[in-house]
Amino acid sequence: MRLLYKPFGVLVGAIGGVIAASLFKRIWRVLALEDEAPAATDRDRSWHEVVLASAFRGAIFGAVKAATDRSGAAGYAYLTGTWPGRQSAVSKTK
């Protein structure tokens, strides 16, 4: 049953990436008052701006990925009765 989770997990991950990109763009527009975050290769942007934008993007993508992965695993478990990921020693004894 856990093998069936692989394609489901890929789909959930792709959806999470789209959500994270959209969320980052919206938040960046509000916080920085500009449409595009600076890229690492933008010559006219400072190190501070580039690194801060990248760190912020990574935090948003990480949080959205964790939320979508967890939601996907919980939904899969609800539908199949099998948790797709690892189980800790504590959860095995319950």
What portion of residues belong to β-strands?
under 5%
Number of H/I helices? 3
For the terminal residues, how far apart are their CA atoms?
21 Å
Structural class: mainly alpha
Helical fraction: over 70%
N-to-C order of helices and strands: HHH
Low-pLDDT runs of 5+ residues are none
Say how many strands there are. 0
- Kindly provide the radius of gyration, computed on alpha-carbon positions and rounded to a whole number of angstroms: 18 Å
The major pleated sheet works out as: none
User: How confident is the prediction overall: mean pLDDT?
Assistant: 87
**Morphology:** elongated
Q: What is the compact description of this entry?
A:
This protein has 94 residues and is an all-alpha fold. It has helices spanning 5-32, 47-80, 89-93.
Task: Supply database-style keywords.
94 residues; mainly alpha; elongated
Describe what you observe in this structure.
With 94 residues, the protein is mainly alpha-helical. The chain has a domain at 35-75. 71% of the residues lie in helices and 0% in strands. It has helices at 5-32, 47-80, 89-93.
Give the arrangement of secondary structure elements.
Elements: H1 5-32, H2 47-80, H3 89-93
Helix pairs in contact: 1-2
